[in-house]
C-alpha cells in the first residue's frame, strides 16, 4: 500500500518543474536580472498553484548509466528510422500502408507517459496522435505496417522505450518490475530453445 506523500515531499518533487519554468522565463527575456528572476519565480508558483495542472511528481531517482543508454538508443533509432523513411520516399515500388495502433503502457506516471510519447514521436515514421491518460494508452500513427507482425514490432518498440525510461528515471518499484519482467522473458526464451533441442 502506497503512503500518501507529505506536503514537503510533493513540493520537493515539484521543485525541478518550478526551476524549469523559471529558466524558460529567463530564456524568453534573454537576460538575467533581479526583476526577471523574481517575476519568473512568481509566475512559476502562479502557474503551478492557480491553473489546473496534473501533479508532475518525479521519482527522485535517476540512473546515469541507464540514462546514457536511453540517449544512445534514441540516437540509433532516429538515424535508422530516418534512413528507412528516406528510402521509402524515393523507392517507386513502396506502397504506403499505415496504421493507427493502440499501445497499453505499464506505467501510470504522467511524466513517464509524456516522455515515452515524446521519444516515440521524435523517431521518424511514428507519431503519437492521441493519449488516454486515465488508462495509460498511446495511440500512434505508424508507417509500413503491412502485417500483424509489423504492428507487433511497433508495439514492442514502444514498450521497450518505456522500459528504458523506467530503468533510467522510474521509481525503484517500477525499475524492479521491469527487471523482473525481462528476467521472465529471458527464462521463457531459454526454455523454448532448450525444449526445441532434439
Automatic annotation (TrEMBL):
Highest taxon, organism lineage: Bacteria
UniProt GO MF annotations: monoatomic cation transmembrane transporter activity
Basic residues bias (residue ranges): 178-187
Keywords on record: Cell membrane, Membrane, Transmembrane, Transmembrane helix
Entry's family note: Belongs to the CPA3 antiporters (TC 2.A.63) subunit E family.
NCBIfam families: PRK08965.1-5
Protein name, UniProt field: Na+/H+ antiporter subunit E
Protein source organism: Orlajensenia flava
Upper taxonomic lineage: Bacteria, Bacillati, Actinomycetota, Actinomycetes, Micrococcales
